[in-house]
Amino acid sequence: MLSTDADKALWLAILGKDAKGVALAAQQGADLNGRVPQLSVSVALQIQHSLAKEHDTPVDERTQVALTEHALSTLQRDPRSRDHFTEATWSPLLVACHYELAEVRNALLAAGANPDEADETGLTPLLIAVRKGDTEATRALLEAGADPNHSQPRAERGVGAQGHSPLVRAAGDGNLALVELLLAHGAEVDRPNSAGQTALLAACGRPHGAVSWSDLSEREDREETSGDLVATMAAMTEQLGKRRAPEERVGDWDAIVTLLLERGADIETEVEGEYPIVGFGLTGTPLIQAAGRGDLPLVEKLLTAGAAPRAAGGTSPLHAALQGAGSLAVLQRLLDAGADPNVRDSEPTPVVGLAARSGNMEALKLLQASGVDIHQRGEKSGGTLLHVAADTGKTEVLAYLLDQGLECDAPMIRPSHTEHTQKLRDTLEKLKREPQSSVLQEALAAPPETPEPPIEGVTPLMVAAVRHRTEAVALLLERGADPHRRDSAGKTARDYVLSSAEQFQSKRGKVQELIQRDIKQDLGDTLEKLPEATRAGLDEQMQKFQATFTGMFDQMFTKKHQAAEATLALFPEN
């Protein structure tokens, strides 16, 4: 790394954004594909940018030389030393494309730099150009011979987590110009990226990165985390500057879908990756993606082009329509196209169960009119739709189902314990025959334990009680639910309220204990390596941290306690 004067001159020219200097260094024999720590380059260029912005003028030559010389001395260090927070090392072309140094990029390509030189994560200059939506850079790289079908290897997290390829990324970003350019230079229309996603799936799926905090808060009924906690965490995170709520994306996805179909894209393509990312355009079929977005015109286009409203990837278009935008028009169109209203997902949850859980009365009635039996029970839980609605406190659904004749005190009828245990054993044996990680192999080697027999006789009232769904409890009691009925463990609905309240109190104590722990004890000798100013400010920062999180969790637990008290007041003493 920087072993010759020519190499040093090359990087001095790159950091100085000097295209002529790059060409001269190349003539002197500089290594055009040599790598340096990416972070050092980033720091040098960001400082230059900040200074120029602050003074509203370009950085003067003397300051620029000083900055680049300092950066070069940093680049001479071992890229894997503790002075660097990343092990990624970048070639000159990666740097030029990332910082959009067009003249430097062109000079490097003209001098023979490898357009496919990737860093340790498999990130190439072309992927960077496509990610930035840089049409000029993309064209220059493709004309220089860059591989339009290269896919970044799938990573567990961080850079490369989605295993992007140029065409899939451009399609997901809604960049029609880049899609056309890549196809014109040999990009294969159905070539999946490392995560198994194709361009058509990406175009039909949600725009890359378009996730809002409101999407998270709407999951209150499906997650243990309350909406208030999600909103509080979102506000705190944004305030701390760690993450900003992304803006809405604008793109030519409809035109891209039309183009890809014209080019022969497989309309029934499915994710092939081992670990699809649900909810980011990486699961199911294009039709499932379009249904999840509630995009009726796109659903219509795909159906007209021959897409089948079938299940795939553990879900179905009907499930996606309800779990996503909840579009009744999309649901109706799918049913008209022959979608099976009784289809279940991999849980296995029926579509009508999603309607009951979310409180979507129109969808519930539409499915019932399509022939769905609202008296059906869950395959795993053995519960009725009343249990589902009670769990999420959807009183309108509860009232409707009771009016339709569902039994108010219908208990859960779980599958045979023996049958359930045998299914678990069969699943374990199947897993043992398939390639697994060493950790899972070790876990599977242990003899399976026989699970405890499930509690029988749980009623909708008990479900509403344990969730502290006060209005649902009141409605069920008003409609004749028996508050004295007991499950197979001898517990009444009131007992469920008491036990859940005790669990919340226990959790509250554990959370407070965790927050109040002196983090300095965990840091140990590490503190001694910190600057004195950092150590001095640690106590103050930790006090702020503890106060913020204590208040946040106190608010959440107080709300839970109040709900438990209100629910308990509805029941007579046992």
TrEMBL record:
InterPro entries, per database record: Ankyrin_rpt (IPR002110), Ankyrin_rpt-contain_sf (IPR036770)
Region (Disordered) location: 432-456
Keyword Nucleotidyltransferase: no
Superkingdom of origin organism: Bacteria
ANK repeats: 121-153, 162-194, 313-346, 381-407, 456-488
Keyword Repeat found: yes
Alphabetic keyword roster: ANK repeat, Repeat
Name of the protein in its database record: Ankyrin repeat protein
Native source species: Armatimonas rosea
Phylogenetic classification of the source organism: Bacteria, Bacillati, Armatimonadota, Armatimonadia, Armatimonadales
